[in-house]
Amino acid sequence: MVGYLPAQFLSSNTNHRTDDYGGPAANRIRFVIEALTAMAATVGAGRVGFRICPGNPFNDIYDKDPRETYALLLEAASPLQLAYLHLIHVSNPQVDSLALAQEHWKGPLILNEGITRERAERLLDEGVAHAFSFGRPFIANPDLVSRLERRAQLAEFDPATLYTPGPEGYVDYPVLPG
User: Fold this and answer.
1) Is 98 exposed, middle or buried (0-12, 13-18, 19+ CB in 10 A)?
2) The whole model's pTM is what?
3) E strand or H helix at 110, and its extent?
4) 91: domain CATH number?
5) Is residue 140 included in any domain, yes or no?
6) Domain span at residue 106?
7) What are 49's strand-pairing partners?
8) Nearest in space to 129 (alpha carbons), one of 173, 90, 85, 81
9) What is the C-alpha to C-alpha distance for residues 118 and 178, in angstroms, rounded to an integer?
10) How many domains does the chain divide into?
11) Is 4 a catalytic residue?
């Protein structure tokens, strides 16, 4: 199994098309831009956002030049004036996805991955992002909002329990007293 459909079109290792949707990065972004344009036309651009993770090898996705691919994608998506770009910022020697988004995206930015309260406050103060999402920390901390408010230590997410049957890793994380 390999990635999500938009990621499959964007990635050089999965998109083997020989038509206008394959080959060079300018063609591989076409499906995503057409989908975003159609959604914006249907429900309004202010109700459409999209999520990317340049350079993330999730589900064996690989792009030989994610910087080129995602720079083109963001340049093409920015004029659509969508509600937001949700960036999963992972450490990757091929591309600094945050720098890439700052350079090529003109619109609201939501950051995810490795976000702490302190980092979120700093990036918000610096005007780097407009909002932050806490996916895995929210799973591991059913009381995440309270922990952030109290500046309490966060429970660690256990990746070994992700996508497993039963309650372990979903409803068994501790809640702070009081």
Assistant:
1) middle
2) 0.88
3) strand 109-112
4) 3.20.20.70
5) no
6) 5-133
7) 84
8) 85
9) 23
10) 1
11) yes
